[in-house]
Amino acid sequence: MTAAIEVNAVEKSFGNVAIIRDLNLSVAKGERHAIIGPNGAGKSTTFNLISGYIKPTSGEIRLNGEVTSGLRPFEINRRGLSRSFQVTNVFARMTVWENVRCAVLWATGHRYAFWKNVDNLPEVKQRTAEILDDIHLSHRRDVPAGLLTYAEQRELEIGITIAGGASVIMLDEPTAGMSHAETERAVALIRRLTEGRTLVIVEHDMSVVFGLADRISVLVYGHIIASGTPEEIRGNPKVKEAYLGEEVD
Amino acid sequence: MSNAVTPAPAAAKQESGGALSFYGVWLIAAAALVVLPLIFSSGGSLTSFSLIGIAIIFALSYNILLGQTGLLSFGHAVQYGLGGFLAVHAMNTVASHNWPIPLPVIPLMGGIGGMAFALVVGWVMTKRAGTVFAMISLGIGELVASSSLILRSAFGGESGITTDRTNLMPLFGWTFGPQIQVYYLIAFWVMVSAIAMYALTRTPLGRICNAVRDNPERVEFIGYDPHVVRYLAYMFAGFFAGIAGGIAAINFEIANSAYLGATQSGLVLFSAFIGGTAYFFGPILGAILVTYLQLGLTNVTSVWQLYFGIIFIAIVMFAPGGIAGILMKHRPLIRAGTLGTVIPSYLVAAIPTLALALGIILTIETVARFSGGDAINLLGIPFVATAPTTWAAAAVLVVGGFLVARITWRRVAEAWDRAATVARDRGYLA
Ligand SMILES: Nc1ncnc2c1ncn2[C@@H]1O[C@H](COP(=O)(O)OP(=O)(O)OP(=O)(O)O)[C@@H](O)[C@H]1O
Ligand SMILES: [Mg+2]
After folding, report:
1. How close does chain B come to A149, measured CA to CA in Å?
2. Ligand 1 atom closest to A38 (CA)
3. Is the pTM of this model over 0.90?
4. Among all residues of chain B, which has the CA nearest to that of A82?
5. What ipTM did this prediction achieve?
6. Which terminus, N or C, of chain B has the lesser number of Cβ atoms within 10 Å?
């Protein structure tokens, strides 16, 4: 079976600084895959590479077997990959409802239509309402996204990411800055919403990582030093030395 | 006074299901357009209304770019002007061949002209938003305006190209010679264009335009190419600008290089911004106000552009949401019933603000008329520009007005905060 995501020997340099070095990663379909690693290791850069935000200096990235390195983000998105951002990245002047609805429009086939009334599209309406329900923001539907609280914006960020129904979901530190209770709620949400889909998640909270992930990859200095099940990663001496330390014991 | 005010869910819920009131607004607007010339029937008002109608379509088309898609254009008159030229040529061709095409169809030709130009140059122009787009639009504007003077066969050089709208076939006995008939032609196109442009904002494309305005980067990650979105918006804006230009050509029976120029581009930016770009109806208010100011001020002062500049700066600094922004800020207070507590402070603040405005006017006119000119007539009082008493009066009004106005506006802000707090408690403000 072809992997959902396959990264082969990808290198990325900014100027002459190599940030990603010989990156190899394979995420199977339906797998929940966590990427962990110290600050500045290149986790977000890896997301940017896979989602088309930046182009690799060399190497190849495949989505469901198809080469996507070199494609624009919207082309990759249309092929079934959707990502969230570490720093909240929403449509600030539009309402919560509109934010989610915009993310639903392409996937429901309405594209650039200028001959349809957007309020008269039942499947769009229904799907938007469902997503709002899922992310617990129905009661805030008419508030501009820019006025939401931080935790609400993070939930909206997840909502926009999953709204299009992509088969591969990538979440970059979805719970960063959340309180303990908020994190728990967000994790339950992620678990439920990515049911039957492929998930790649960057997360610093180890309890979240080990609770959620089927497989874990450890990224250090732009290179994956270990990849395996949570047990394998826990027991891996290289990982212990480079990153986890006593944290997991 | 510039903090964002947004209605809370409670207030918004009352809005939904208001389809009746929605259609009501358009019906009232249509009715107003019909009866307006019956109430104000002088030739002068008919001319003014016609100009306002053209300005409304033009300003609304501009807002497809600025307010809806976040594209700041300095050359929107290009599409307007080309629409005008195409309409004039179309009228002359139709008349010379005796084709059975009535005049009210001609604005459509203008629209097609504006859109065709956008189709050709738009893809390159809209590759990037922001400063790049603004600069290219400025360059294209200059390019076309100067070409129009050189390419005499198409643009008629300095004098432009004239036409006679009565040479086309009459429609139901209307020759469109009298201004009242032209007015109704314009009113018809104002309604059609305004409804069409409003409808555009309610389509998937219209919504994604807003998303591109807010965050073009994120749009790429929900499946859309912001470049395509900007390009489509640019074409629609060009289409409706062309319609406005085509109507202008019918109204004036001429198209010349002034249609395409930077002044015209500046004026439409000015109208949309003063009216307020965040709301659909903002540019309509701006177009009405700016056209009236233009007509009114040119009669009373030779330096009317100076006043335009001051008004523009004042809006940018004190009410960046424009007139529509100011009006909509008060909506939650009206709903919550707390507007009454703010109004007294407004009335108090109005007095020194008015004094300040009069002082500024007196100062400007004193300078403008110092070396000759009529006495300044301010509120019926004649002031002589060379008299020291005039200078003293101006200084007192400006300095005194400013100092007192500052205090009274602070009071307004306090009254506002109290009223907003109550509105928030009652659930009308987020
Ligand atoms: N566009 C860029 N230009 C230059 N350097 C960059 C760029 N983007 C990222 N970097 C650098 O690449 C390195 C990796 O950054 P990245 O954001 O991918 O780290 P991260 O693993 O996501 O870290 P964190 O846990 O803090 O989010 C950092 O040193 C960063 O400064
Ligand atoms: Mg990161």
Report:
1. 12
2. 25
3. yes
4. B221
5. 0.95
6. N
